[in-house]
Amino acid sequence: MRILPLLCALLLLMLQGAAGLSLARGSPQDCERRRGFCSHGSCPPGIGRIGICSEQDFCCRRRWYP
């Protein structure tokens, strides 16, 4: 019975790790659907990052709409 809490903790850690791996990379089309644009390297000042277009490009969008 001493091993049961250890197994529960191990199972919890495995499930948390698997949740992080399930995030899929976006595409430029996904970024445009979210009313954003792809920017190489980083987003310009005053613009927030809302996703990833590719390994080197971020999906960016203005933080506040009028």
UniProtKB/TrEMBL annotation:
Superkingdom of origin: Eukaryota
Cellular component per GO, a single term: extracellular space
GO-annotated molecular function: CCR6 chemokine receptor binding; chemoattractant activity
Keyword tags: Antibiotic, Antimicrobial, Defensin, Disulfide bond, Secreted, Signal
Membership in a protein family: Belongs to the beta-defensin family.
InterPro entries xrefs: Defensin_beta-like (IPR001855)
Protein name according to UniProt: Gallinacin-5
Domain Beta-defensin-like: 28-61
Predominant subcellular localization, coarse grouping: secreted
Signal peptide: 1-20
Biological-process GO terms, alphabetical: cell chemotaxis; defense response to bacterium
Subcellular location per the Swiss-Prot or TrEMBL entry: Secreted
